[in-house]
Amino acid sequence: xxxxxxxxxxxxxxxxxxxxxxxxxxxxxxxxxxxxxxxxxxxxxxxxxxxxxxxxxxxxxxxxxxxxxxxxxxxxxxxxxxxxxxxxxxxxxxxxxxxxxxxxxxxxxxxxxxxxxxxxxxxxxxxxxxxxxxxxxxxxxxxxxxxxxxxxxxxxxxxxxxxxxxxxxxxxxxxxxxxxxxxxxxxxxxxxxxxxxxxxxxxxxxxxxxxxxxxxxxxxxxxxxxxxxxxxxxxxxxxxxxxxxxxxxxxxxxxxxxxxxxxxxxxxxxxxxxxxxxxxxxxxxxxxxxxxxxxxxxxxxxxxxxxxxxxxxxxxxxxxxxxxxxxxxxxxxxxxxxxxxxxxxxxxxxxxxxxxxxxxxxxxxxxxxxxxxxxxxxxxxxxxxxxxxxxxxxxxxxxxxxxxxxxxxxxxxxxxxxxxxxxxxxxxxxxxxxxxxxxxxxxxxxxxxxxxxxxxxxxxxxxxxxxxxxxxxxxxxxxxxxxxxxxxxxxxxxxxxxxxxxxxxxxxxxxxxxxxxxxxxxxxxxxxxxxxxxxxxxxxxxxxxxxxxxxxxxxxxxxxxxxxxxxxxxxxxxxxxxxxxxxxxxxxxxxxxxxxxxxxxxxxxxxxxxxxxxxxxxxxxxxxxxxxxxxxxxxxxxxxxxxxxxxxxxxxxxxxxxxxxxxxxxxxxxxxxxxxxxxxxxxxxxxxxxxxxxxxxxxxxxxxxxxxxxxxxxxxxxxxxxxxxxxxxxxxxxxxxxxxxxxxxxxxxxxxxxxxxxxxxxxxxxxxxxxx
Length: 772
Hints:
The chain is of the alpha+beta class and about 775 residues long. Helices cover about 50% and strands about 15% of the residues.
């Protein structure tokens, strides 16, 4: 199935007819070319090739070539690469589908050709003798691998991975075996035939072996001081030979160009580490080869940041360029690698290009700009306070810019450390943030910090002499002011005093606005109180004490300052109970004036009027307190004492009348009790006390002199219905008094909060509650 027969008639064109000995076929060979079958035919006088077509083809065979030269029997063979080798006396010719190809000049008449592995075996006779020679050729590497004289050969065969040669006369044979690769290479190395060794190793496709040969070849050239060619060999070992082996050989200053080429190849194969990058850039900088340095770090505009980072170690490249003074190259690497921190560091520390740094930050996303400013903002604030503060204002307040990706505003408190030497800029920054609309983040810290800035007596900003347009921050030296220097200094001092007064007003407004009446503070009240104390801001201290209901501390502020007028105003405001004040504060003020070393007669009179009106202290206590002040005379308390004595005299008279009344009542009650115990009671009531009808039997009479019909009393005949409610009320009072004996805390509470403790004790004695 699928077979077809082709009959070819091969005739010579100059010799005899059919059946001539010269027309006999001495060699055949075929191979497939695509889907076609190619047939080679050799006679003694001709060499021909035919295309027989594919399987099932119906067309006639096509003659591909026809050469008027042939070969003897067994002198033609097909090679592994589908060529047809024909051995003649002058050479071995190779034929293909296009006809005659290359040839190899092997002198001597060819008796037999044989292909073994990748070798062409030729049995030929020398031109000058009939001696037979067996030669094994490596056509690819163009060398003779075996050559020796032999006796007449009967046959040559290859089997069992060896070449067997059978001799005709002696009945003997010998075997040719291929040597091991290591043996062949060692022989080639001794003869310095490294190129041949490479060809042999590449045939086996053994990469480590090939790399080792390249290494030995490079070592050979290096020892001959052929450094450029040696480096070409070492470059071919990348991936197999440790780079340090090559680098150590070329660290000498005269071999830096070769070393640079090797390091470039390492980076090209993406096998370089940070040390290799450092070494390569150092080579460029020592050679001052800016062109190669540019070629190494610059890329096309379409390369992404991720691809750029993979080219070499970014941080190492930046450090080397910085240390060598190639700042523009370092900036290029940092920018294309997305290293914001390094980019700003170079701009600020090395190039002093503050405007470029601000422009770069302005184009970053808000989160990246915030992180960068936290690290490098201090240099910008010192050198360009106005522009940097404006940038921070934009980052810390909500923005409506549609061209930017929306992001939450930054926390202003995160940038406080940037303004360590620029307190005025910090004050402007925080004022803007607080007044920019919604409540900012970290408002508590903002208000506390701003309060401290307001209260600082002299805000001094450090001045960058290189900063342009810094008239606001600069201070003129008095020596440069000329004759009018002292007058200008006085005017400047007055201006600073006025400015400080304005800041104090702002501080008080900040405290008051941050803690509305009845609300919660928007700042740390205790921290603000400490700040106000440290800076001696009495208005703020008084305000905070009042908001914290620490009224006695408010009075102490005025007492410590010996501010009598302020003290009277404060106690008048805070001691008014109708507005939630504490009237006992007047007692503290009175005690203060009792210790006051100076004239305070008018203030004492005013305090005494309030003490008298509220009945806060007994007169004797007032006199004891004021007696401690040697500057007070009797005239100060004369009017007060006359009024108190008059009022107390009236109270005494009233108490005496009450005593006489209670004594008469007690005497009457005792008399009545005695009569009840010793004398009979005569009931003369003629009417019922309940219904007012004439009294009829049965009737009930009570000792209280009330009489009732029995029917009017109902079932309760033991108690007088008229006197019972009053009696129960008295009994309840007695029970309540007895119960109070078991509650001493209540007694002490009343005693503590009462203005007249003696009255409380007297009341308890009167109730009999002290009779334990």
